[in-house]
Write a structure and sequence with these properties.
Elements lengths: L1 E5 L4 E6 L2 E6 L2 E6 L5 E14 L2 E15 L2 E5 L3 E3 L5 H18 L5 H18 L5
Parallel strand pairs: 1-7
Antiparallel strand pairs: 1-2, 3-4, 3-5, 5-6, 6-7, 6-8
Helix pairs in contact: 1-2
Bound molecules: adenosine-5'-triphosphate.
Length: 132
Amino acid sequence: MHLKIITHEKAVFDEDVDEIYSKGVDGEFGILKGHIPFMTVLDIGVTKVVQGKDTKYFSTMGGVFQFKDDEGLILTQCAECSDDIDEVRARKAMERAKARLAELGAKIDAKRAEAALARAMARLKAKMNNLN
Ligand code: ATP
């Protein structure tokens, strides 16, 4: 089967794969060859891809996942392979978002800081080869 991970900027991944794991808004899911057609809205999180003995981890920032006829497609705002993730930058982004959240308390503006925190956490998890 095949997986494409596409952002509005580029194709981050476009290869044959054996297994796909990610997190939709309804929960985590795994896909193997021959899976029935499936579609979900993705959460901000990590997508894990198995190719033979290799496993790759990507941060995927929401969007949609579609699977049909052994073709998987992720359309997402932003995605990075763990090799391309700058861990120091993600840690700094996480600290900034936490500080902002502490400052904001329960205000509406907290949504933006929460999203920044979720992106930073997804990058750190992908970098550490963690799905969850
Ligand atoms: P930061 O505050 O560090 O910019 P951010 O979550 O605001 O983080 P985004 O707006 O999600 O960043 O992404 C902007 C661009 O920077 C995207 O192209 C994304 O791939 C890249 N990017 C963001 N953080 C990292 C990181 N830690 N490592 C590698 N690329 C990153």
